[in-house]
Amino acid sequence: MDEIIKSALTFFVIMGPFSSVPIFISVTKYMNQTQKLSAATQAIATAGGVLFAFLFFGQFLLDVFMIDFASLSIAGGLILTILGIELMLSLSISGRGESSPAITLLATPILTGPGVIVTTMIFVQQYGYLITSIAALIALVASWLVLWFSGHISRAIGDFGTGIISRITGLLLTAFAIELIITGIKAAFAL
């Protein structure tokens, strides 16, 4: 149970649905409630499709490219460190904001970007398919709820509150990334 909770929280932090709230609001501002529900569902379904594709076929890709767990862990940690720093400092190193909001929402690079993909593959290695699947589903449902209630959340916490949440999320993500790098180094050097 602890592994599921830790994994679900990690997925949720990496997906960062709160950082998607302004994008979602701007894309759906002229939609009625039914259309907004459909847009949130479509975004999460797309994110889930990408996540589960890597959950089940990620190991195959590792085998094809002869990448071991230690290398994946270190690379994933580095990617997540960059994403965490972006959130903490409100930067756009990875260029996530360069495409239009509609494309960003539909393709969900924010929800299932490189960080989620790498983390999914690492969790499969560490915890197996069942725990990773359950944790991913919990995080996806929680992210869907954030998108669905994005208008209420935005009004309740305002821009300042959204910024604070993004920075805290970035700090937690960076801490998790450092943990991944340390795990990868230990595995690589059999420490």
Overview of the structural elements:
The chain is mainly alpha-helical. The chain has one domain. The chain has helices at residues 2-15, 17-28, 33-64, 69-89, 101-107, 114-127, 129-148, 150-188. Helix 2 crosses helix 7 and helix 3 runs antiparallel to helix 7 (129-148). The longest helix has 39 residues, at 150-188. The two termini are 28 Å apart. Residues 96-107 have low confidence and may be disordered.
At a glance:
By secondary structure, the chain is mainly alpha-helical. It has helices at about 1-15, 15-30, 35-65, 70-90, 100-105, 115-125, 130-150, 150-190.
In terms of quaternary structure, the protein is single chain
Summarize model confidence as the mean pLDDT: 80
Give the distance, in angstroms, between the N- and C-terminal Cα atoms.
Answer: 28 Å
Low-confidence runs of at least 5 consecutive residues: 96-107
Count helical runs. 8
Q: Find the structural class using helix and strand composition.
A: mainly alpha
Order of helices and strands: HHHHHHHH
Let me know the largest β-sheet.
none
Percentage of residues in strands: under 5%
**Net shape:** globular
Measured as a percent range, the helix fraction is over 70%
Indicate how many domains the architecture comprises.
Answer: 1
| Rg from Cα | 17 Å
Q: Please count the beta strands (DSSP E, at least 2 residues each).
A: 0
